[in-house]
Amino acid sequence: MDTAEILEGLSFFREAPGELKAHMRAAARQVTLAPGERLFREGEVSTAFASLGRGSIRVFRLGATGREITLYHVHHQQASLIGMLSALQQRPAIATAQAEVETEAVLLPAAALRGWVAGSEPMRAFIFETMTRALTDVTALLEDVAFRSMEGRLASLLLQHFAAAPLISMRHEDIATELGTAREVVSRLLETFERSGAIKLSRGRIELRDAAGLRPAR
Question: Is the model's pTM score more than 0.85?
Fold first, then answer.
């Protein structure tokens, strides 16, 4: 995708008046992130507002123990609330954003963004939509952590991935990072699911055998 295609996929750009569109086009800078590359880092101030054209970003926090927990994911035609607020308020980001796959995005300078927000209703609507989505995801995470067992959380994560394909490529350490737990915990639970006949494990892969064997877990 080129810069124009990414911008056209964003609601605040499509609905902007012609003059504002021209300013956005002139200010936009396209970037391609390799898997594992950081879009912004916890503790640093974002100097630009990033919107995704394609790919996926994982936004996570690093705990005092050095363990990560995923707060939410950002996909195409979306933006990260934490990165957006850091750019708007010129304050350090409270989490880190990392590309999960090769990701293309456009960056709009923070200084210009603050002016656009003041004068553009579509831009404000996009920000409120981003806030709603992120808060919904974080609230669901808090509910999971507070009220669901790790077995139930793992089962839900697997079912989400199996919805796309019955065979997924996921390392135990990646799952542990996503859930904010230890690799050993994930490995033990996956082996339990395998013994029950719900899944089949192989190196770096997990195959769905019986979805019903995962759904009862809480």
Answer: no
